[in-house]
Amino acid sequence: MIEVRDVSLVIQDRAIVDGVSIDVPEGQFTALVGGNGAGKTTLIRLIKGIVVPSAGQIVVDGTSSLGAPRDFALRIGVVFQNPETQIVASVVDEDVAFGPENLGLPTAEIARRVERSLKLVGLWDLRHRPVHALSGGQKQRLAIAGILGLHPKYILFDEATALLDPAGKREVLDTALTLVREGIGVLWVTHDLREVFGAHKLYAMMNGRVVFQGSPAEFLSSSSSLKAARVLVPDEARLAQFLENKGVAVEWPITRQRVLERIKSLSLKTSS
Questions:
Q1: Could you tell me which of 9, 36, 16 has the C-alpha nearest to residue 229?
Q2: Distance (Å, rounded) from C-alpha 28 to C-alpha 123?
Q3: pTM of the full predicted structure?
């Protein structure tokens, strides 16, 4: 488990992150939401070790990140918004091999990791394809495969779908959910609530502080938390809340299809 305990980052007398505590368990999908300037990306950098906290501590599997050895850093991977910044080779399989090669691993082990990583993200059949021929969603999945080649236990997704079209967003989110089923701990950072309805736990940030922690359903039912986090509630969630208030349950996780099917079933009962 990644344990963030009372972590703060102060720059020029301003607290960018202020006393934040969150957990990211192995094999679970943990969501972190909040508007622009909430401190989400800074927290990601603190967890990864790119930035050193001014106070508090970050513990991964019982070991503090301060003064941690090299292999500690390999336990946590980060997927950023723009996959172009994380792709280093011109061919798909060569890009995934880059990291393991730099670790000095045997050729057979590198080949095994490349195959497993590309199969997990659904790109094995495209292993010989030039990177420039991939779609945006495929490039982001390739960036994930490159991280998987280093065998991380946790992957942090920092607005990883922000630059993608709806199809690409779905591809990357489905890939993250596949990784969770494989036992990897995922921290999914976004401002789009549609992406986190199925999360095991949700945290919301505003002005560098955690203003909510609980389930996605609890978050949606707390108007004060929604207001504090400054996130937009999707139409399907509003409709689901309206139905709940009328005593009509909508199955979680909420999707447009499920809400529409529930409304349709009510319409059929009324007409009959």
A1: 36
A2: 23
A3: 0.88
**261 in the same domain as 222:** no
pLDDT in tens, 133-185: 999 999 999 999 999 999 999 999 999 998 899 999 999 999 999 999 999 99
Tens digit of each residue's pLDDT (9 = 90 or more) over 193-248: 889 988 999 999 999 999 999 999 899 888 888 888 888 887 887 887 778 777 77
CA-to-CA dists, residue 107 to 112, 136, 149, angstroms = 9, 30, 13
Mean pLDDT of the residues in the chain: 90
- Tell me, what amino acid is at 126? L
| Statement to judge: residues 255 and 224 lie in one domain | no
Backbone angles phi, psi at 250, to 5 degrees: -115, 130
The domain tally of the chain equals 2
Tokens found for residue 264: 């349709």
pLDDT at residue 71 in the model: 63
Residues 197 and 244 in one domain: no
> 157 with 247, same domain?
no
Q: Tell me the H-state helices in the chain.
A: 40-48, 70-73, 92-102, 107-120, 136-148, 166-181, 216-220, 223-229, 235-245, 256-271
- State which residues form the domain around 211: 2-231
CATH classification at residue 77: 3.40.50.300
Structure tokens at 249: 């349950």
